[in-house]
Amino acid sequence: MSTRASFIDRLARRWEQAGSLLCIGLDPDPARLPASLCDSPDAIYAFCREIVDATADLVCAFKPQFAYFASARAEAQLERLLAHLRERHPDVPVILDVKRGDIGATAEHYAREAFERYGADAVTLSPYMGRDSIEPFLAYADRGAFLLCRTSNPGGADLQMLDVGGEPLYQRVARLACGDWNRGGQLGLVVGATYPAELAAVRALVGDMPLLVPGIGAQGGDIAASVSAGQTSGGTGIVINSSRAILYAGDALDFAERAHAVARATRDEINRHRRGTTDAH
Amino acid sequence: MSTRASFIDRLARRWEQAGSLLCIGLDPDPARLPASLCDSPDAIYAFCREIVDATADLVCAFKPQFAYFASARAEAQLERLLAHLRERHPDVPVILDVKRGDIGATAEHYAREAFERYGADAVTLSPYMGRDSIEPFLAYADRGAFLLCRTSNPGGADLQMLDVGGEPLYQRVARLACGDWNRGGQLGLVVGATYPAELAAVRALVGDMPLLVPGIGAQGGDIAASVSAGQTSGGTGIVINSSRAILYAGDALDFAERAHAVARATRDEINRHRRGTTDAH
């Protein structure tokens, strides 16, 4: 679709430039927005814009969670937010967290939605429907996709830990994602911070593939364990997501400042556990 | 949330009332809409409204496919369509095909979107993230959910056919869905028409649980084989979906009439293979 650098190259460049592996998840819950914004008709956009402007220098990516916009009829605000990010923070990749998964003809429409309508740099996808449900997204050569592998929630184990021929299902997904399914080198995996041993097992299988790691902060995942388990030999390779702990650090007029402070502390805590951080930044 | 009949009871009543197991999938592709509608700003809504009004007497359900609305920025038209269906065809359940799957806090927002914003009677969900990704939908006691089990696409086999302790993964999903995960009796399964042997295997595992069966028509699934394999002993239990073959039966001014004719022929063809149809209608 274009000749610009691949998503994964842009992400790698951002890790280096920003000296950060932190991703901020944009989960704007209408019930938790600061009182100062509540009367605004575009409160969700205004909240997210203030958060991203206050924290962009601290992150390797932003990850808007589609569900929060969809339940609030705020698709137009999501479009504005991504346009704002492209204009003001063009070096920060945006991972649209949609967890799509459908047959080919339908997946083409979801790919168009994510990459053309919203202009996302990457998406999250479910692997359950197999390779042809992923391919329409990979037709956009400069975009990326993170496949759900080992998710951070308790129920993740229900299917993902089932033994399939001597390995758990999530490891089979990891091997498919770094083998045949990934001819264009556009894939990453989602592996929760709540299971560091499994994060280490995935890293051992997938070389330098990027891993999106949700579950620190409100979900209880441990930063030190996640970074140790997930980083590559070069001290990168992971996109560590925190949402609520940063977004709702403060609920008064200074919410963006408070978000900045928590984001900076989180970035620094991540960096303390990285290999070669003193060289990287 | 309310005291009205459960989704599955309403579906069973509709099978009986309409004498039909046919579901029409609403996949409004802007590139294939009739020329007469193309200049309308709400062409997607107008097209779907004409289709549902022309075919409602022939179906047990309608299934709007979210991706087609999302790629066209047509969420408001989807809202109008569901409002129209509730008002004009209140006895026809609407299955919103969204294939969601996310952690609990996020799944609550998706449930709110599907059931409160759009007012759907049921949704489709991915099982990959396990039980707690399903539960927020089941909190709506009068609504239902169809879990992806054995999907109609070629890549469906990539994970779904993996052996997990002596059975393929899709059969494990079927057993989970009719066991512990289904305490409120709100679940059904999605099993593609393209694999009738696997449809029969699922039916043997799940008793009378409703099965949503996509893949006839444009995808090549065989009606006789699907009905024989999927129906219950009472000749119901299946929601057989056809989308493109009906929606795009004609592209001139008479498109709704042509859709009606193909839908009637499809309903009749399904009924020819049902047990006890002469009693049912």
Structure in words:
Chain A is built from 13 helices and eight strands. Chain A has helices at 7-18, 43-55, 66-71, 75-88, 104-117, 135-138, 157-160, 169-177, 196-206, 223-230, 244-247, 255-272, 277-280; strands at 22-26, 61-64, 95-100, 122-125, 144-150, 187-191, 211-213, 238-242. In chain A, strands 2-1-8-7-6-5-4-3 form an eight-stranded parallel β-sheet. The first copy, chain A, is globular and about 55 Å long. The first copy, chain A, is an alpha/beta fold and 281 residues long. At the A-B interface, helix 3, helix 5, helix 7 and helix 8 of A face helix 3, helix 5, helix 7 and helix 8 of B.
- SSE order of chain A in H/E notation? HEHEHHEHEHEHHEHEHEHHH
Most extensive chain interface and residues per partner? A-B, 51 and 51 residues
Strand line-up in the sheet with most strands of chain A: 2-1-8-7-6-5-4-3
* Major beta-sheet overview of chain A: 8 strands, parallel
Q: Structural class per helix/strand content of chain A?
A: alpha/beta
Secondary structure: number of strands of chain A:
8
Distance between termini of chain A?
33 Å
Mean pLDDT of chain A: 95
Short description:
Chain A has 13 helices and eight strands. The first copy, chain A, is α/β, with parallel strands linked by helices and 281 residues long.
Which structural traits does this protein have?
281 residues, 13 helices, globular, eight-stranded parallel sheet, alpha/beta, homodimer, 8 strands
